[in-house]
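MODEL INPUT / OUTPUT PAIR
PAIR INDEX: 1
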Amino acid sequence: MAVAERTPFASNRRRLIKDRVARYGVSAGGLMVLAALLLIFGYLLYVVVPIFKSASVEEQAVLTLNDDQVTLLVGSDELGELAYRLLGNGELRYQSTVTTPNRSAGQKLLNQQLPISPVVALARDAKAGELLAIAGSEGQLLLVKAGSSVSYPDNQRVVEPKLHYPLGEQPRQIDSEGQPLNRVAVSTEGGIRIAAWTADHRLLFVRFKPKRNMMTDSVDWVPSTLALGTQFSSVDELRLTPSARYLFVRSGDLVEVWDARDSGQPKLRETVRVAGKGAQVTTLALLSGSSSILVGKSDGTISQWFEVDKKEGGRGFDKIREFKVPAAVVSIDVERDRKGFYVLDANGNLTIFHATAHNQLWQNALHLDAGARMAVKPRANGFVVADGDELKQYKVVNEHPEISWRTLWQEVWYEGYPEPQYVWQSTSGSDSFEPKLSLVPITFGTIKAAFYAMLFGVPIALAGAIYTAYFMTPAMRAWVKPTVEIMEALPTVILGFLAGLWLAPLIEENLPGVAMVLIALPIGILLTAIAWQQLPARIKQSVPEGWEAAVTILPVIFVGWGAFALSPTVENWLFGGDARVYMTNVLGIGFDQRNAMIVGIAMGFAVIPNIFSIAEDAVFSVPRHLTNGSLALGANSWQTLTRVVLLTASPGIFSAVMMGLGRAVGETMIVLMATGNTPVMDWSIFAGMRTLSANIAVEMPESAVNSTHYRVLFLSAFVLFVLTFFFNTLSEFVRQRLRARYSSL
């Protein structure tokens, strides 16, 4: 039976089909990778872009008031469903601002005549904005909290007005002489404190202390009044911080700062001039947290002042930054829990700013009268305005006001800091916390960690790769190369665990030993090589050819053991028994147990296998005819290596280094476990750092979804993505240039 012969055409067809399938498969895989990268890029942008959106304001309702009384003050409840107004005759009126199943917008809910009429002066508590201090014409004062209560009858939410009187429903006598209180300020945090300026030019500070009746269990507030010796004959404004730490007394462009923390007698700390020539102060406001005061002026500027260290010594208030509106400032209303504030100017324009971001978020002409009264809602999602015979309610969408290019990438002067700084501090125990979300410290930490890892890993990996590929005998290479490459399979969490819990304490306890290793190890290897050359030929020939490098293992072990064994003795002899204390107190070098040295060693071991494997393959793949030709022309092995082999393999070697750098930049677990995770900017090898990847791993679980913190963490992931993309693109560009330059060899 004849056997069918396989024709070359059939074989070529099958090979062609396989080639096409392979080509299409590789192309499809590459396109899928590219699509995945684009999807990651797009999703990161989708999460990040909202933090850069400006605020938006929308008018929700306009209600007719139908009364002939002057509105002195306006406010809103927590949910934004009620608005209240205090009228000049001492009447407090509530009405609904939204339509619900139970009531219609504009419906009057409460008309409460307060036992003070007419109202001579009033003030809000800077922290609890719904707490009002209302002063009468005979030295009396009434505290009333214009709050609300929520109930759910028949599963329907009903918000009702609710008034509370902390000092009782009747006014309390503040001035025993019965003089009108022309200016008042109130604080209720940790007790009730009142500051008042009387018609006969006296500044009073009243502290109410609770006294419980043992028989009736009722609480009576007992006042103690102090007269403060101010230099002013007239006072325009009083402001009292919530904790009564500071009392600000303004007369014209001068502000007295009183320290009211002392329970005995407030003390005058300083007098500050808050306006220069050509401008008059129109109003003061306390920014959220009450560490800063905002000064509005007639030229349309608003300046922020807070306490800093003075050059001449001590601490005092200084102007930090300024904001600008088109006309004279009429009023400033602040957000309760953020550093935002609203400015109404003489032209009826409303402008929204954020103090920390030093950013104007929104501005528009609302055509409000100069006598309009405005209040920001407690949740900063809107504001209400009493303008003539109309009550207007506005909705504000302003989710991320604290983010700007300045706060992310430039130095910012934060409250309480001695100077502008780069700071990452995303959380705090205080509700009035000033977010500090600079990406500079953690980006710096990423670069620093990668730098020290590469400083440790690149010389070892490249030297090992070159020796293994060019000088090492094939038998030894068959053992060394797989051994180094298998290190890549070691989980980085294990490296981080060992670095943090074993290596860091070991190095801290043996700092002199580490220094001696760095000095003695190269010397020991060099002396070993010299000694090997001096040995008799009989002894050298007993070692198989190409295995001479194994001899260097002995000095590495001996020098390492000897240095650490002598470390306590050297420490007692040179450093008084504690090298760390000597570094800190004598040399002025700070030392953190988990520092850049630990990260460099641990992450260096993580990147060595990558760099070694790629570089070794590049050197080993240099064509033999190039090396043989160089040797035939009289060059020695070292000249052939430096002038032929390394140049030919340079594209691969550069790619290896850049791959290692990309690995170091994106490493998470090692830097998470082997550093103190402190976002400081210090190049010292003995200081810690926090990297972008570790920051995401630490803080993402505790961030609220879609919050500013959450989106900034995604922005840091985007920055990390861009960094790695940049390094990889740069490496590919340089590799192609090197390949084109040396491909002709």
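PAIR INDEX: 2
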Amino acid sequence: MTNSIAEVVNSDVVFITGSNTTAGHPVIGARIRQAKQKGAKIIVAEPRVIDLAADADVFLQITPGTNVALYNGMMNYIISEGLQNAESIAERTEKYDDLVAALADFTPEKAAEICGVSADDIKAAARLYAEAPKAAIFYSMGVTQHTTGTEGVMTLSNLALLCGNIGIESGGINPLRGQNNVQGACDMGGLPGDLPGYQKVTNPDVLAKFEKAWGVKLSDKPGGTLTEIVHKAGHGDIKFLYIMGENPMVSDPDLNHVEEALKKTEFLVVQDIFLTETAQLADVVLPAASFAEKDGTFSNTERRVQRVRKAIEPVGHSKADWVILMDILNRLGIKEQYSSPSEILAEISSVTPSYAGISYERLEDLGSLQWPCPTADHPGTTYLHKAAIARGKGLFRPTEYKPSNELPDAEYPYILTTGRVLYHYHTRTMTGKVAGLNKLSPESFIEINPATAKNLGIADGSKVTVSSRRGDITTVAKITQAIKEGVLFMPFHFAEGAANVLTNPALDPISKIPEYKVCAVKISPFDRVSDYA
């Protein structure tokens, strides 16, 4: 996030897109409602009628996969009406003329036709956003999990730069991370081309610094993403796979292929706190300690580094992740020894400029710090790009709208999109063991518009068979006006009736993220399963 969670309460406009915020990030959803109570205007662009749609001044129920078209249509209108922030554009950006030229013909009317919404609503949303002194964008995986996910993020950046909403309090672009320490994992080099602090392995100076710090020779070649690794494993190109705290047997697209690939892997190690669906396929399972059984830090979605404190000793033979990894490294000949996570954070700070001023001592005194925090007396950074854009000037990157990789046709006539529910967390590794949560949300389901259900002879609560080009599942029908005709929605949490059996593994060519949010399916009552033979 460029800004902080608390700042949203003072935003004049909040634009929520690709995020069912109250279900996926309920604390932030509550803050947005507080902003509404203080007078903020709300814009929501979502394929479903989410809870925050009731709070919205403009609700755009767009067709899944049309985010870029919507944002481009909004910007065309802002420019044509002279609503852009000319002063900010001149002082803080470059390549503005390229944006103007690229959007010249992308009118709200054109966007409306693609998105399946009203051109007047697109204009109203654009005007609200552009005229607000402080407008914040909140987005999540409804923007990124597309073959054009990178373009979606770039287009939101264009919109924020166009209206001067970067580098101001209560504005910015605020991606909501999917899990509690995803930001921290990325910060620590959990990306295939990065060392800690987003320092690139292809940069010789960076590599030399880490080689000196660690006393080992490092590769300058980026690794593969999870989906690329699974693909290679399926073709026999990956012989050994080590999976930590991830459950691709529920969370990855095209699960039949994932299972085949993992079974084909010669040696699979899974390090986790429970015996997940993935761990059940492993040759070796390493029992890890939960958050309550270890010390350390998490870095959350607003770049806030916070202490995690051990409440109980690790249960059974489980160990903290860092202890397991250190034991393995020692057995591989790397003799480095750490006595505590505080030593590890000290090392992180020594090689990672954005964490240089963060230490256990300061976290004990202050409670938390937001990076970048470059020195031991720096207070941390509540919002980014205040004095200047980090790269010097904000770069406009015009993006074309491109349809999703897989669209409905005669054989698979419906769009399936996926997401989360409030009561479960990711693949239910933890929440699936809580009786109260299972009572509230016990099983897989698929949302269907009443008109679509009537045409197919599907009753609410009945079993249905859903098929895509990758497989078929049985799930339970939930008839609701929250979804448009021709569009279906499933939560991805459940191993039984798993949505990701159906989803498309086609990747964004830049970020390599799969297109979870759009695939083509067919659906029928369960007793007509023979129709699929």
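PAIR 2 NOTE: Residues 529-533 have pLDDT under 50 and may be disordered.
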